[in-house]
Design a protein that fits this description.
This protein is globular. The protein has a single domain (3-65), classed as SH3 type barrels (Roll), CATH 2.30.30.100. Helix content is 20%, strand content 41%. It contains one helix and five strands. A five-stranded antiparallel β-sheet has the order 4-3-2-1-5. It is α+β, with helices and mostly antiparallel strands.
Length: 69
């Protein structure tokens, strides 16, 4: 599989991912929580969450879809 194929696969996965575009709470292994919007999946398959004015890459954690208030 070439680099172009991997890029296409990542883009297809991100487009189909039910979490991308949703408001989420991520319970991180260190005991912290990150609350924000899931905006992408990076080239390594990690979830990208925009919170606190920056983008955070999440490789492990429990993700909960948060209902809008």
């Amino acid at each position: 599989m070439g680099a172009g194929d991997l890029g296409e696969l990542r883009a297809s996965y991100a487009a189909a991912c039910a979490t991308v575009g949703r408001h989420v709470r991520v319970e991180l292994p260190q005991g912290h929580a990150l609350v924000g919007t899931a905006v992408d999946v990076d080239a390594s398959g990690c979830l990208v969450v925009e919170a606190e004015g920056r983008r955070h890459t999440v490789g492990a954690g429990d993700v909960v879809h948060v209902r809008p208030a």
